[in-house]
Amino acid sequence: MAVVIRLQRVGKKSQPQYRVVAIEKSAAVGKEAKEVLGQYHPCNPNVAEQVKLNMPRVEYWMKVGAKPSETVASLIKKASAK
């Protein structure tokens, strides 16, 4: 099975928060992830604290063949620029 790195929505209806997860590509929304790799809080006014990623684990999953979604790829780029 193919593993992807994508966002999983959590939080309240009007206050979106996302987990960055490694999950099977065919897994339905809300299913259990293989591993939680970080968090993304787009409503946080402090831009520096919007993205929190465990970069060694993200790099590990990418080495073993996990492909990040477009949005997650931009978040990885933003987090590694810090």
Automatic annotation (TrEMBL):
The keyword Ribosomal protein applies. It comes from the Bacteria. One of its GO terms (biological process) is translation. The keyword Ribonucleoprotein applies. GO terms for molecular function: structural constituent of ribosome. Keywords: Ribonucleoprotein, Ribosomal protein. One of its GO terms (cellular component) is small ribosomal subunit. SUPFAM superfamilies: Ribosomal protein S16. PANTHER family: 30S RIBOSOMAL PROTEIN S16, SMALL RIBOSOMAL SUBUNIT PROTEIN BS16M. Belongs to the bacterial ribosomal protein bS16 family. This is Small ribosomal subunit protein bS16. It comes from Candidatus Avelusimicrobium gallicola. The lineage of its organism: Bacteria, Pseudomonadati, Elusimicrobiota, Elusimicrobia, Elusimicrobiales. The gene is rpsP.
